[in-house]
């Protein structure tokens, strides 16, 4: 075999190897064939807007007032619930409602078990910032329960804790030492 | 727990006291004054003369209803400019202007010239504008909205809560509907879901006329409860009605009642048998105490007010009903929820009233609230259904008060109605088991008698006359509950 022929064979083999590698790389990054790998990625990179429904108190203290709002969608459950509570703490955008949650309340931890019971650990401001009687207490809890239940539909019951410790009551009128059945708070 | 409002909140109390007073008068005045439409076939009761609602009388000139220019200027908060040479009066309010000319049907509203059906007249030196002018006034947030109320013979300033129009009844496909035109449908509330006393409340004031017959389909009677800036209707619903829902749409609210159960619709509250109830021992629990002052506002502490009120209620009940009254505390000391329940159960109470005074961040909120065990109760164990039936066996002791849910709710309605009659409204009944009734083996209520953070309520609940009125109202309610007619 002549030198020219040997070089031609080497070039052909190199080109073949390059083609195989290119195909393998394309195959691995293909959105269809690589779907399993993409689904296994953590869901914290999503960055869409999602419509949520928040509940504040009517100024008369009679009831809750719903308010639609768009939030940047958080990937994890913790992110979503934290964003919801932060918006409740921020207060209503319209004059037909007032904030029901004690000022400064934030989420420390969130845990959802496989039976739909969410344990929501709130900052101490939830208790320390509370002022009022049973109406303020009822609406603060109702605001939280309805907002979580509407936007995280897998939640069936909600147990509120504060600063990592059990919470027996918020204002002395309503028991919080047991999980709240969200269907009891329409 | 301690609930002293922030200094800012206390300052706000003073600033917004008038708004709260208007809202609170709504149901109260109506229940007290309006005649009932007890039987089927009569119209909704006419509204009472508005009190506290800004308005002006209408004068009849040449047999036409007219409003005086001075009244018009006052209601529109307008400045007056009079040109005697051409007998023209211009009213200016913000960017708006209305020009009236004596003996002339043409008026100028902003930049538009309008022709009224009748000319503007001059009577005793004051121009009188036909009420048709009100329909041509601009509608925006800078100008008061005026309404000619022919029945009252007045021109009224429509409150921000809007109006409620004439209710109409209809039946279609087995569903009975009560439809009302409502400016603010989101404010409509079902405040009582018992069939015999089903109540709807609206923030707007009743500006409707004669209504449909009170008995159509499953609705056996409609009783109109109109008042200053709010109104309510009490309906009698047929016993075989199974479910209802309130549909809020832009411009109207519809109550739908169905004979058959419908998924996602609400059920009516169960009701017990009629006839006098056994009432021998009443336990009154003055809320809070000791290191727990409850709500604090303007130097007043809830624990002191509830104790004083409890003593007055005790005197009133003993005098009127001859019952034995036990207080869970008669001085300033703290007792736990368990101790309160133990006192009630040891006394073999037939009735437990836990007296409280409410507080809310918005000083406009006022009135009384009752918390009673829900008739359909799901405890921590996840059990559901009427506790008086088969689920009694699995009811935890701490939730034993749920056995008396029906009686407790009836008590709540009786007491709240009595409070409304004595100007302590608006009222609201919440079916949720309060801590004060955990482990209490008797019918009971947590009653927030007034709202301390509201100026009008604070004045009432902190004075002798006001406390007496509240105590009498509570005794009225207990007596009505005991009679159970």
Can you describe this structure?
The complex is a heterodimer of chains A (186) and B (485). Chain A has 186 residues and is an alpha+beta fold. Chain A has two domains: 3-39; 49-184, no CATH class. Chain A is 37% helix and 22% strand. Chain A has five helices and seven strands; from the N terminus they run ααββαββααβββ. In chain A, helix 3 (77-90) runs antiparallel to helix 5. The model of chain A is unreliable at 30-46 (pLDDT under 50). A six-stranded mixed beta sheet of chain B has the order 28-25-29-32-30-31, with helices on both faces. In chain B, strands 5-6-7-8-9 form a five-stranded antiparallel beta sheet, with helices on one face. In chain B, strands 15-16-23-22-24 form a five-stranded antiparallel beta sheet, with no helix packed on it. Chain B has helices at 7-15, 17-33, 69-76, 302-321, 337-346, 405-421, 455-462, 464-483, and strands at 2-3, 55-57, 59-61, 64-68, 79-83, 88-93, 96-101, 106-109, 112-115, 121-123, 126-130, 146-149, 154-157, 163-164, 168-172, 175-181, 189-193, 198-202, 205-206, 219-226, 231-237, 243-249, 252-258, 266-267, 281-286, 294-297, 300-301, 324-327, 351-358, 368-372, 427-431, 444-451. Chain B has three domains: 34-51 and 161-267, Immunoglobulin-like, CATH 2.60.40; 55-157, 2-Layer Sandwich (Copper Amine Oxidase, Chain A, domain 1); 281-483, Aminopeptidase (3-Layer(aba) Sandwich). The two termini of chain B are 39 Å apart. Chain B is an alpha+beta fold and 485 residues long. In chain B, helix 2 (17-33) packs across helix 6 (405-421), helix 4 crosses helix 8 and helix 6 (405-421) crosses helix 8. The interface between A and B is large, with 31 and 47 residues.
* DSSP strand tally of chain A: 7
* Strands of chain B, total number: 32
Largest sheet of chain B: 6 strands, mixed
Query: Greatest interface and its residue counts?
Result: A-B, 31 and 47 residues
Which structural class is indicated by helix and strand composition of chain A?
alpha+beta
| CATH architecture assignment name of the largest domain in chain B | 3-Layer(aba) Sandwich
What's the helical proportion of residues of chain A?
Answer: 25-40%
> Largest beta sheet of chain B: what is the strand line-up?
28-25-29-32-30-31
Measured by DSSP, the beta-strand proportion of chain A falls in: 15-25%
Number of helices of chain A: 5
């Amino acid at each position: 075999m002549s030198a020219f022929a040997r070089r031609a064979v080497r070039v052909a083999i190199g080109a073949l190897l390059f083609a195989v590698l290119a195909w393998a790389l394309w195959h691995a990054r293909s959105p269809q064939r690589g779907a399993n790998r993409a689904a296994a990625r953590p869901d914290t990179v999503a960055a869409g807007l999602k419509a949520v429904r928040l509940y504040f108190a009517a100024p008369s203290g009679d009831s809750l007032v719903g308010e639609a709002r768009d939030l940047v969608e958080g990937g994890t459950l913790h992110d979503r619930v934290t964003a919801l509570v932060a918006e409740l703490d921020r207060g209503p955008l319209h004059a037909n409602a007032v904030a029901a949650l004690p000022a400064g309340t934030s989420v420390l931890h969130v845990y959802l078990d496989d039976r739909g019971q969410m344990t929501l650990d709130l900052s101490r401001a939830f208790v320390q910032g509370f002022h009022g009687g049973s109406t303020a207490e009822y609406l603060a809890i109702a605001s939280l329960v309805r907002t979580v239940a509407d936007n995280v539909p897998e939640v069936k019951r909600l147990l509120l804790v504060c600063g990592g410790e059990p919470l027996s009551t918020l204002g002395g009128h309503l028991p919080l030492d047991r999980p709240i059945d969200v269907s009891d708070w329409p | 727990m301690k609930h002293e409002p922030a200094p800012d909140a206390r300052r706000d109390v003073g600033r917004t006291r008038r708004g709260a007073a208007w809202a609170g008068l709504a149901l109260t005045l109506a229940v007290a004054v309006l005649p009932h439409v007890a039987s089927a076939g009569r119209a909704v009761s006419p509204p009472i003369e508005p009190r506290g609602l800004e308005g002006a009388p209408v004068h009849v000139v040449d047999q036409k209803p007219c409003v005086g220019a001075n009244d018009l200027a006052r209601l529109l908060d307008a400045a007056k400019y009079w040109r005697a040479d051409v007998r023209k009066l211009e009213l200016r309010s913000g960017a708006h202007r209305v020009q009236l000319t004596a003996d002339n049907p043409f008026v100028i509203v902003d930049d538009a010239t309008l022709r009224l059906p009748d000319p503007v007249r001059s009577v005793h030196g004051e121009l009188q504008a036909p009420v048709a002018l009100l329909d041509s006034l601009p509608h925006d947030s800078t100008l008061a909205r005026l309404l000619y109320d022919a029945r009252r013979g007045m021109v009224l300033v429509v409150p921000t809560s809007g109006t409620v129009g004439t209710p109409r009844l209809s039946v279609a496909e087995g569903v009975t509907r009560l439809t009302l035109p409502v400016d603010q449908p989101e404010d409509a509330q079902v405040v009582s879901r018992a069939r015999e006393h089903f109540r709807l409340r609206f923030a707007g004031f009743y500006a409707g006329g004669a209504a449909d017959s009170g008995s159509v389909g499953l609705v056996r009677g409609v009783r109109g409860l109109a008042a200053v800036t709010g109104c309510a209707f009490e309906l009698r619903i047929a016993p075989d009605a199974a479910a209802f829902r309130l549909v809020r749409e832009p411009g109207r609210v519809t109550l739908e009642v169905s004979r058959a159960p419908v998924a996602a619709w609400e059920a009516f509250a169960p009701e017990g048998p009629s006839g006098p109830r056994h009432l021998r021992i009443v336990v009154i629990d003055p809320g809070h105490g000791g290191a727990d002052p409850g709500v604090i506002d303007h130097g007043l502490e809830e624990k002191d007010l509830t104790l004083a009120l409890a003593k007055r209620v005790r005197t009133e009940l003993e005098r009127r009903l001859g019952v034995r009254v036990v207080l869970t505390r008669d001085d300033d000391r703290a007792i736990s929820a368990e101790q309160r329940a133990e006192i009630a159960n040891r006394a073999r109470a037939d009735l437990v009233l836990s007296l409280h005074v409410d507080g809310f961040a918005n000083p406009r909120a006022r009135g009384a609230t009752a918390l009673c065990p829900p008739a359909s109760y799901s405890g921590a164990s996840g059990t559901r259904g009427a506790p008086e039936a088969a689920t009694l066996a699995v009811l935890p002791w701490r939730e034993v008060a749920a056995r008396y849910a029906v009686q407790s709710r009836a008590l709540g309605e009786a007491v709240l109605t009595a409070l409304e009659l004595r100007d302590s409204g608006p009222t609201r009944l919440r079916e949720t088991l309060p801590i004060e009734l955990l482990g209490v083996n008797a019918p009971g209520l947590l009653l927030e008698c007034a709202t301390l953070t509201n100026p009008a309520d604070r004045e009432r609940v902190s004075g002798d006359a006001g406390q007496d009125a509240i105590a009498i109202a509570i005794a009225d309610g207990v007596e009505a509950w005991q009679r159970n007619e």
